[in-house]
């Protein structure tokens, strides 16, 4: 059993690396394409035969509350006075 040259020749096993678009380890190094989102292509890779993956990738539920709002804090937390001044100035322009 050799531990040297013949063993080192088999060390080409990392086929996929991280994708720039989706962040998954699905970007094929030699093909230069992502198996998850199809990265270099302009359109995202989506097939109807995999409804679970479509469900995983979409954002949130029925309502639009999961998309986020302008403030990162909940509305019941009192905001600082500097933010309130900026809001009042914006209202005065309208």
TrEMBL record:
Which residues span the membrane?
none
A Pfam match is Ribosomal_L37e
The GO cellular component terms are: cytosolic large ribosomal subunit
The Gene Ontology biological process terms listed for this entry are: translation
MF (Gene Ontology): rRNA binding; structural constituent of ribosome; zinc ion binding
What UniProt keywords are attached to this protein's entry? Metal-binding, Ribonucleoprotein, Ribosomal protein, RNA-binding, rRNA-binding, Zinc, Zinc-finger
Record function comment: Component of the large ribosomal subunit. The ribosome is a large ribonucleoprotein complex responsible for the synthesis of proteins in the cell.
- Record PANTHER family: 60S RIBOSOMAL PROTEIN L37 (PTHR10768), RIBOSOMAL PROTEIN L37 (PTHR10768:SF0)
**Family the entry assigns:** Belongs to the eukaryotic ribosomal protein eL37 family.
Q: What is this protein called?
A: Ribosomal protein L37
């Amino acid at each position: 059993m050799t531990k040297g040259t013949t063993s080192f020749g088999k060390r080409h096993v990392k086929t996929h690396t991280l994708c720039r678009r989706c962040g998954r380890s699905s970007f094929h190094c030699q093909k230069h394409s992502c198996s998850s989102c199809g990265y270099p292509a302009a359109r995202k890779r989506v097939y109807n035969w995999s409804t679970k993956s479509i469900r995983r990738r979409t954002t949130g539920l029925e309502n639009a509350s999961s998309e986020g709002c302008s403030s990162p804090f909940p509305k019941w937390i009192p905001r600082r006075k500097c933010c309130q001044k900026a809001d009042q100035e914006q209202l005065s322009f309208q």
